[in-house]
Specification:
Strand content: 15-25%
Strand order of the largest sheet: 4-3-2-5-1-6-7-8
Oligomer: single chain
Radius of gyration: 21 Å
Largest sheet: 8 strands, mixed
Helix content: 40-55%
């Protein structure tokens, strides 16, 4: 890449980062206008659309890996990024180049200029850039993760996906999506399209009823994945062997390279989705390639080991925290534990912290504040911990100081450090490590 390309990319990132997350109209309405002026690239691609509250990024990563290992050129669109904005847009696991990003950005910017300044939001730019690059690169199939919700999300401008997937649904973004899990389920299941099969996590009855009703109303085949479908055979702390037994798999055994128990469910959802794609004639799959892809599969920031006995996990709501807690014991093997925690102000942090303290899984707590519009004062987080535990709570103003303090403590006690509460926290820590 030449210097001009590099400068163009930096200017593009600077402009996108200056944009608001929310502007007039819904994300879907804005994306429809944008994509129409770009020639509707999404209509020329095979799109798998994925929604959910927890695990949807991991499901996307596992499924994209399965498709790639079977020889399909695969586009992947996810959010948020941890370090580099281009993490959101990948082809066969690789970030798109700065040149590709800058060229596609210029096309999206031209549309915004035509529609009027402030007509597009931060997320809209990434979606437009992704579809431009995916089409130009002639990807065979692309896996697209929703940003927020489903029905009104920008990604719902995709009207003809080949498959819809809904991961675990829980209470989140209640000010935007609704204050009950049923309202949120309605929003998430808004991605369901007429005659498009849907694969989903079948757990809470009220949520299942809503998804199945939406599927029925849209003449869709619905495939539910339940807790009974998969069973952990052995958790080694760094990898897990499990079996899957449902309409497509007959006690087939798989290995995932992580100690995160919750990834068994996410992987099972992706595996089932892959078989539905095969059944409907969208792809052809080879069993050995599927097993290999699952074992190779990784999703950064989800119970990821970034140094000896130091893990980061992007759990950012109560259900995510509960899932993390279930994975701690097999990893620690009885050693002392430290939790580095931070959270943004629009999360149910009191419930998250209570679950952490009630679990009795951690011996020390290090608290950090996250900067920015959604920041929550570190003293507020610290006080909440002190309300639920008598164990040591170390309060640090910023993430760098908190991480260095927690890592030093981990070395002193020869323990295990877990960093969680927000993907923003995970991203900053990974930047420090890098």
């Amino acid at each position: 890449m030449n210097i001009i390309d590099g400068k163009s990319y930096e200017k593009a990132i600077e402009y996108i980062n200056s944009l608001s997350q929310f502007v007039a109209g819904t994300g879907c309405e804005r994306a429809e206008k944008l994509l129409e002026r770009l020639g509707n690239p999404q209509d020329k691609l095979k799109v798998i659309h994925v929604a959910g509250s927890n695990g949807k990024g991991s499901v996307c990563a596992y499924l994209a890996g399965i498709l790639q290992e079977n020889g399909y050129k695969t586009g992947l669109f996810t959010s948020p990024h941890l370090i580099d904005e281009r993490e959101r847009i990948r082809i066969n696991g690789m970030m798109i180049t700065k040149e590709e990003f800058a060229e596609a950005y210029a096309r999206v910017k031209a549309v915004e200029d035509e529609l009027g300044k402030g007509s597009l939001a931060y997320f809209d730019y990434f979606l437009g850039i992704a579809f431009i690059v995916f089409l130009k690169q002639n990807v065979d199939i692309c896996v697209i993760e929703t940003g927020l919700g489903g029905r009104l999300d920008a990604t719902n401008a995709v009207k003809n996906p080949v498959l819809d997937i809904i991961a675990t649904i829980s209470l989140e973004h209640t000010a935007i999506l609704g204050d009950t899990i049923e309202k949120i389920a309605e929003e998430k299941s808004g991605i369901i399209k007429n005659n498009v099969p849907v694969v989903f996590i079948k757990d809470k009855k009220s949520v299942t009823d809503i998804i199945e009703k939406n599927a029925e109303d849209n003449n869709c085949e619905a495939y539910g994945v339940t807790q009974k479908d998969f069973q952990i055979i052995k958790n080694y702390g760094y990898c897990i062997d499990f079996s899957l037994n449902n309409m497509y798999y007959k006690n087939d055994c798989f290995t995932i390279t992580t100690g995160a128990v919750y990834q068994v469910q996410n992987c099972s959802l992706a595996l089932t989705a892959a078989e539905v794609l095969k059944k409907t004639g969208v792809v052809k799959l080879e069993s050995n390639a599927v097993h290999k892809a699952v074992k190779k599969g990784q999703w950064h920031g989800r119970m990821e080991q970034i140094a000896d006995n130091i893990y980061v996990d992007g759990a950012h709501n109560p259900e995510g925290i509960e899932a993390l807690i279930c994975s701690v014991s097999p990893i620690t093997c009885g050693r002392k534990t430290i939790l580095l925690f931070s959270v943004v102000n629009d999360k149910d942090y009191d419930r998250m912290i209570k679950s952490i303290c009630d679990s009795n899984m951690f011996d020390y707590f290090v608290i950090a504040g996250i900067q920015g519009k959604r920041c929550l004062d570190d003293s507020c987080i610290s006080d909440t911990f002190k309300k639920y535990t008598d164990k040591p709570v170390i309060d640090k103003i910023n993430i760098k100081d908190a991480y260095e303090s927690a890592a030093a403590l981990q070395r002193d006690i020869d323990g295990v450090l877990f960093c969680t509460g927000s993907l923003y926290l995970v991203g900053e820590i990974m930047s420090i490590i890098k």
